[in-house]
Write a structure and sequence with these properties.
Layout: E1 2-8, H1 22-31, H2 38-58, H3 62-72, E2 83-84, E3 92-93, H4 95-107, E4 115-116, E5 120-121, H5 127-137, H6 141-161, H7 175-187, H8 191-203, H9 219-239, H10 255-259, E6 266-272, H11 296-308, E7 318-325, H12 327-333, H13 349-353, H14 356-366, H15 377-380, H16 383-389, E8 392-396, H17 398-405, E9 416-422, E10 427-432, H18 447-458, H19 464-474, H20 482-485
Parallel strand pairs: 7-8
Antiparallel strand pairs: 1-6, 2-3, 4-5, 7-9, 9-10
């Protein structure tokens, strides 16, 4: 059973017992000692595999090289044995820095799971900080599973109810509380301690969305990792008896009053009742393609159109392409963002990842999408691609916006209708509601597809024996001992990672 918790702003002279505050309600969910259901356990295993997949593909990319070097500059802290760093066999770091390095690796390619409702989210971002703490303190697989279930539950509950982006607050502000809550579950902390950590986790992770606007920088990958790192530190601080701003959500000078909908705001946050299992992860979905989630279905549609109408790949045959879609797709990754960089062939990979005109063009011409090749400067700068790219625009469609926000899984949609006008006057119209890999899509992802994705991305950088070792281990996740949890890592091929060549900084 789901309980709706009402949230509003309270004046300082109004009485709001902490037991009625949202942060306390979230902490109660985290402290509730329910076991994860079998299908939830299976999905958690899928997502740990998924995170390892995209991290493997990122091991030599600049943001990961830099964040890994930062983590290695911070040796294991007291109180535990440290946490592993993706790609490395024996090296360990303090858990907050391992969460940082591994969080960047997971997020860099924009290629792991997603959940979209009132806000956007990549709930798999909860896994690196929770896993890092589990390895540091010696938690077993059962505890890790329960903690990950909490991280997903809390983040997705907040995402269902509280919109950040319309106030230009980055969506990672929901990760600080959710990762803090997940770590609280992992450690078996009491409600009061988790409450303080959640408040601190939120207070330190509210940043603007400029990281996803204009010329998008490498900070896009670092932002959720920073939230995870702050969550680890928030829990440590709360465990030492230190308190945090309160009430963090409802206060007169709190997050809602000054950063979100203001003093007159009200929300209804859905939370599982006491004793109810945490099942939110089952409502999330992963990516087949390395691109913003709203691009997933449209890549699949472009792939289909490429096969049915190969003439569309020739820019000279096309007069105009209009993608009728949701408000979010139009204004964040479409022409409605009014970002000239979305049509710039010299733009960064992070910017191209947030340009549906570019993504649709390349998928239409190539009949598919590749996490590296589709973003290269040579691919983006191809003359015929630039010509076709500039003929692609987006338009908001009220029905697609309604379906985007629908609570009915059968009609919730992240796609759109594409209208293509050819030079000879012919018009082609086609549409897609959800990505092929979506649970309701043409080819839904199951364990087989997660493993296939892992093999595809890991084979260039991991030895076959390492691939098999990791897959055997992770699929026994709830049964793992503390020592086996410490082996939940991927180790790169010898000589792939040149640690000495990493950029130097302050540490």
């Amino acid at each position: 059973m789901t309980v709706l918790h009402p949230v509003r702003v309270y004046r300082s002279e109004e009485d709001l017992p902490r037991e009625e505050q949202l942060a306390w309600k979230l902490a109660e969910v985290a402290a509730d000692p329910v076991e994860a259901e079998p299908e939830v356990v299976d999905m958690i295993i899928n997502r740990v595999i998924d995170n390892a997949s995209v991290a493997a593909a990122s091991l030599t990319r600049d943001p990961i090289v830099a964040s890994r070097a930062q983590a290695l500059a911070h040796p294991v802290s007291t109180g535990g044995r440290g946490a592993s760093i993706f790609g490395l066999a024996a090296e360990r770091s303090s858990p907050e820095w391992a969460a940082w390095a591994n969080g960047v690796a997971v997020r860099e390619l924009d290629y792991h799971d997603t959940f979209l409702a009132a806000e956007y989210s990549h709930p798999g971002d909860n896994i690196p900080p929770i896993l890092a703490v589990a390895q540091h303190v010696g938690s077993d697989g059962r505890a890790l599973v329960r903690a990950i279930a909490t991280g997903y539950e809390i983040q997705m509950s907040l995402v269902r109810a509280i919109c950040l982006h319309k106030h230009k607050i980055d969506h990672v502000a929901h990760i600080g509380p959710s990762a803090s809550a997940g770590i609280g579950t992992l450690l078996g902390l009491d409600t009061a301690t988790i409450y303080q950590a959640i408040a601190q986790g939120l207070h330190t992770t509210t940043a603007t969305r400029q990281s996803r606007k204009g010329e998008i920088s490498t900070w896009k990958a670092h932002a959720p990792a920073f939230a995870g790192k702050m969550a680890v530190e928030a829990v440590d601080r709360a465990m030492r008896g230190q308190t945090s701003p309160s009430p963090i959500y409802e206060g007169e000078d709190g997050v809602i009053a000054w950063m979100l909908d203001g003093p007159g705001a009200s929300y209804q946050v859905p939370l599982p009742a006491k004793g109810e299992p945490k099942r939110a992860i089952l409502d999330s979905y992963t990516k087949e393609h390395s691109a913003e989630y709203q691009a997933q279905a449209l890549i699949d549609l472009a792939r289909k159109l490429h096969g049915e109408h190969p003439e569309l790949a020739d820019a000279s045959n096309v007069k105009a392409i209009v993608i009728h879609t949701s408000h979010h797709t139009h204004t964040v990754i479409g022409s409605g963002a009014n970002d000239p960089q979305k049509y710039d062939p010299t733009a960064s990979r992070e910017t191209l990842d947030h340009s549906i005109p570019y993504i649709f063009t390349v998928a239409l011409q190539d009949g598919g999408w590749h996490h590296v090749d589709s973003y290269t400067p040579e691919r983006a700068g191809r003359a015929d691609t630039v010509e076709l790219w500039n003929k692609v625009t987006t338009a908001e469609d009220a029905e697609w916006t309604r379906r985007y926000h629908s609570e009915d899984p059968a009609e919730k949609a992240f796609g759109g209708r594409v209208e293509i006008e050819l030079q000879d006057g012919t018009k082609l119209v086609d549409e897609i509601a959800v990505a092929d890999a979506h649970p309701l899509g043409a080819r839904p992802f199951a364990r087989e597809q997660y493993i296939k994705k892992f093999r595809m991305l890991a084979e260039p950088v991991l030895e076959e024996a390492e691939i098999e070792r990791f897959l055997e281990l992770v699929q026994r996740l709830p049964e793992l001992s503390a020592d086996e949890v410490r082996e939940l890592n991927i180790v790169a091929k010898a000589d792939l990672l040149d640690l000495a060549a990493a950029p130097k900084g302050l540490f």
